[in-house]
Every structure is written in C-alpha cells, then in structure tokens.
Amino acid sequence: MNRFESTFQEYQTNYTPSQNFIVPPGGTITKQFYPRTGNQYGFNRILVGATNTTALFMSAEINNETTIFRDVHVETVRRLFRSRTLESPFIIKASRSLSITITNVSNQEQEVTVQLAGFDDWLLKRWVEDRKNQGQRILTPAFFYGKAEVGATERGKLLNLPPRSENMIVTRMQLASNGDADIRVSLREYSSDLKQNLFLEQLNDEFDLKTALVPYRIKANWPLELVFDNRHPTQSRTVSALLEAYVHE
C-alpha cells in the first residue's frame, strides 16, 4: 500500500451512494449500487424519498439473484429505516451489487431518490474487527416481507410471509397501505396469536423508534402470518409489510 492509499483509507467515511430517477406511469426501473472500490461494502439503512411513496413498490436483490425483499411499498421501506439502523450491516460481497427495483402503479410519473447508508470495505473490516475484539456477536440480518390486497369490508385476509430456512429473531416491523386508517392488523406464528386487531398506525408506532422488548423467535420454516381487516365500506386496500430479523444461532 502506498502513502496515498494509506492516507485515503484513514479518511474514508460512511458509504452513502444515492441515485435519483423518474419512473414512468406503470413503469419499472432497476438501479445497481456498486462498492466504491470494487470490494465488499455493507449498508445499515435504505433511505428513500419519492413524490408518492404509496404509489411505488420496491424490491431489493443481490446480483438480481438473491432476494432481500420483494414488492413492498416504498413507504414501508421508508418507515422501517427513517429512525433506526440495522443492528449489523447487510454485507454485499466483492464483485456483487445491490439491485433496487421500483415499480410505479400510478398513472403519473414519479420521482424517486434511493440512498444507502453504511460502510465501505475498509470501515466495514474495522467494524467487524472491533466487534470481535469486544467479544460481541456479528448478527446476520434478513427480512420477512409480503404484500396483500384486502377487499372492501374484507375480514381475516391472510398474508403468509415467506419462511426462512434458519431460526430467526424478529426485532422490528413496519407496514404501509394506500389507506392506513382503514386497516387492522394481527400477527400470528404457527397459528399462535402474537398481536391482535391493532390499528396499522398503532403497530408502526410500537416499532418506529424501539425494538421489541423481547424479540420474537421464529423457528426455521415455521409459518409467520399477518391477518388484515379492511374497514372501508367501498374501497379495497393494498398492504405491505417489512419485518427486520436476524439469524438466531
């Protein structure tokens, strides 16, 4: 390593790439986020702004192969990351990229800015090393996610969240819809009620700034379900959910 490279590394800071773009009516745009130096990087937050966050849906994948989450409201993502970061960064390995796909379901074009907040390769390595030196575990983040269409006055609409092959702990969650005040939410694991008949905003309030007092332990391949009621007399609602989780070893 030459003197310039050494000095440059000493002053590297957070890695916060962003992209701004327009999504046409009914259109889909995919953007790639690459590391600064071609090496690995990690992100703790996905920060998103848009002209209409409930008219847009987001998916995140690694190299268009490994799904992080799929087809949730941009507003759901915004709510999950606006006030807190992940407990550990989501690491994107060298020579791979993060794909962010935005779909516009409205009849108007929408402007979107997506920003990652995290670590570049050098700071990520230092973070991992510091955690190990302190004897702290490095958690592996993951997400439960899903989307449901809930008809007018429909009760008991079931959304099965894609199961995970590992034991997981769920620490936070956020939901969004195109009519939050109309939606009541219940959460079930293997038919056991974890939460019952909460207002959507009420559930979001619990996890906006705080993690669960006791994280929910979800066994590998066990079903995790959300149940929705729509109180609107004439209009259907689209609801999406994003649950922050970590592999539980």
Describe it for me?
By secondary structure, this protein is α+β, with helices and mostly antiparallel strands. The protein has 2 domains: 3-133, Jelly Rolls (Sandwich); 141-247, Jelly Rolls. Helices cover 15% and strands 47% of the residues. It is built from 4 helices and 16 strands. The strands form 4 sheets. A 4-stranded antiparallel beta sheet has the order 1-8-3-6. The protein has a 4-stranded antiparallel beta sheet with strand order 2-7-4-5. A 4-stranded antiparallel beta sheet has the order 9-16-11-14. The longest helix is centred in the middle third of the chain and has 13 residues, at 121-133. The protein is globular, with a radius of gyration of 19 Å. Mean pLDDT is 91; it is low at 1-11.
Question: Which properties best describe this structure?
Answer:
249 residues; alpha+beta; Jelly Rolls; 2 domains; 4-stranded antiparallel beta sheet; 4 helices; 16 strands; 15% helix
What fraction of the residues are assigned to beta strands by DSSP?
over 45%
Q: Output the number of helix runs.
A: 4
CATH architecture of the largest domain: Sandwich
CATH topology of the largest domain: Jelly Rolls
> Helices and strands, in N-to-C order?
HEEEEEHEEEHEEEEEHEEE
Q: How are the strands of the biggest sheet laid out side by side?
A: 1-8-3-6
Shape: globular
Structural class: alpha+beta
Into how many domains do the coordinates divide?
Answer: 2
Provide the gyration radius in Å: 19 Å
Main β-sheet description: 4 strands, antiparallel
Give the integer mean of the pLDDT values.
91
Ends: how far apart?
A: 38 Å
